[in-house]
Specification:
The protein is of the alpha/beta class. Helices cover 46% and strands 12% of the residues. The N and C termini lie far apart (73 Å).
């Protein structure tokens, strides 16, 4: 292998790593050097794991989750509450809810949020399948979307689309977090907390 070829391979590795979220060119270069220095115990196992993941991991046709089986393990689990679908923007959000262990429902991954400026409209999201799933035994669709402008817009749109389907549409409560001090909260969080107040 010539020096030119070796250099181009390293640059290709760096360029690919730099495309990962949270990694700039400098961080990607550092990661590439670490991988190359530790070929046997890190680079080769990582390459094998990536190849296996690419070959075996598929998207669930029901909910949009990823798994090695189709439909995914969650959709196939008979112990899940089939009357509740929790809608999330991304698979990472689903994983966060599963780690917390606070809900034992079915899920639906939209694959993002509405963002006209970025060219993301309803057609680019996994919305049609959600509407299709909003039938008995489903009684409630819980929108667990991010508290951003895009998340709010997406929640509003999904709510409109589910009207007349005979399911209750709910949202996550918003406001003061556990252990939060009012003096450190932003105005938006405080406003949401006031609007979401309830009797005690």
């Amino acid at each position: 292998m010539s020096k030119k070829t070796a250099g181009s391979e390293i640059e290709r590795l760096i360029a690919l790593l730099a495309r990962l979220p949270g990694l700039g060119h400098r961080s990607a270069r550092k990661a590439a050097l670490t991988l190359l220095k530790r070929r046997v115990d890190l680079l080769q196992p990582l390459a094998a794991a990536l190849n296996e993941a690419a070959a075996k991991i598929v998207e669930c046709p029901n909910c949009g989750n990823i798994d090695t089986v189709s439909p995914c393990t969650i959709c196939q689990d008979p112990r899940r509450d089939a009357t509740l679908i929790v809608v999330v923007e991304e698979i990472g959000d689903l994983w966060a809810l599963e780690r917390a262990g606070v809900v034992n429902s079915l899920y639906h991954v939209l694959g993002g949020h509405l963002s006209p400026l970025d060219g993301v409209g309803p057609e680019q999201l996994n919305l049609a399948k959600l509407i299709e799933r909003a039938v008995p035994p489903v009684k409630e669709v819980l929108l667990a979307l991010n508290s951003t402008v895009e998340g709010q817009s997406t929640a509003h749109y999904v709510t409109e689309q589910l009207q007349g389907h005979g399911v209750a549409v709910t949202r996550l409560a918003q406001g003061v977090p556990m252990g939060g001090e009012l003096d450190y909260l932003d105005e938006g969080t405080l406003a949401a907390a006031i609007k979401s107040r309830r009797p005690i």
